[in-house]
Amino acid sequence: MAYPKLLSAADILKTAVHMIEQDGADGLSLRAVASVLGVKAPSLYRYFPQKEALEVAVVEEILNAMLGRMQAASASPDPEIRFRKTVDAYLQFARERFQLYTFLLQSRRPETYASKAGKAVWKLVVEAASAVSGLQDDTAAAVAIWSFLHGYATLEHSGAFGASGPKGGLERGVEAFLSSFRSRARPVRKKRPPRTTDLRRAGKRSLRNPTRSSN
């Protein structure tokens, strides 16, 4: 007697991620995943009742993979080194696993970014930006650097930089962010308001040296 193949959510998820990485997201479906696993689509419904549930789980899996890279990079106590390593980790993930990266960023399911892994990835970006900007929870700086990195990763993958490459554009962009952050973090010396005694002295000097009226 033939028994049905044993499945687990992890097996299904691993297969779905592999399919996206190899062929992109267009062919992803419960039927396609079931076919690769050698079972019928209804066998997957126990774990993922519809395609949308599988997509949410795939995004979470991708975010966890990205989180692992970025956590390893964020260990440096030096703010600038930490910032640069976070940038490198983000772009390295995008380069090496671009199909997954694209699937993640093109997901139209905002609930995936509110997940535990999604919040953790965003927290690392905010902390790296805040550490160099000197401002607590500097969301504006985090959004700026994230937008820059996503644009760079997309342009690089598409070949838009041409045969000559970006010609140091990434390094210049990162340095521009750091320079801006340094200037914002530098304390500005406030002018001391004049004291009452200073005003009195100035008044006495003006009486001793009255301005000559013009003829």
Q: Your description of this structure?
A:
- The structure is a single chain.
- This protein has 215 residues and is mostly helical.
- It has 9 helices and no strands.
- It has a single domain, classed as Tetracycline Repressor, domain 2, CATH 1.10.357.10.
- The protein is elongated, with a radius of gyration of 28 Å.
- It starts with 8 loop residues before the first helix and ends in a 7-residue tail after the last helix.
Task: Write a concise synopsis of the structure shown.
With 215 residues, the chain is mainly α. It is built from nine helices and no strands.
Question: Descriptors for this entry?
Answer:
single chain, 215 residues, mainly alpha, Tetracycline Repressor, domain 2, 65% helix, transcription regulation
The counted number of beta strands is 0
Largest sheet: none
Proportion of strand residues = under 5%
CATH architecture: Orthogonal Bundle
Going by helix content, strand content and strand pairing, the class is mainly alpha
End-to-end C-alpha gap: 123 Å
Alpha-carbon Rg, integer: 28 Å
Any low-confidence stretches, pLDDT <50, length ≥5? none
CATH class designation: Mainly Alpha
Portion in helices:
55-70%
Task: Examine the coordinates and then state which fold CATH places here, giving the name of the CATH topology.
Answer: Tetracycline Repressor, domain 2
